[in-house]
Amino acid sequence: MDVDFPIPTTSGSAEALAVLRRWLPAFLEGRRADEDLYADRVTTWHNIGEREVEVQRTPSRTRIESGGAQLRIEGVRVRVFDGGWVLQSTTAGTSAGGEPVRIPSCLVASVEKGRITRFEEYADSAATRPLLG
What we know:
alpha+beta; Nuclear Transport Factor 2, Chain: A; 6 strands
């Protein structure tokens, strides 16, 4: 997969890029990255429902796929900044019921001391209906 990585200009962005390079392959495969990449009690805030939850050991994509959905991540664009990154992508495929799925989203990650401390996920709520009801 071709992912656009910027050249780090600060120590904070170089640290975030190092974490991103280890985390991204797991994300693209729908699995959790190595535990040492996550801070204790790392959370994700979701724009859908405006709620913050502790990150679970099994990623939501894995849980959805175990119910029969077939998903992949497309069109990945990443921008690293001092203390994290922004990842834009589209989740595409089919729901467990065979409905087409295309969910544009944006994920903002915060990194401190070489560990992910928080995610903010922004997704098109209407596009998630085939998966989430």
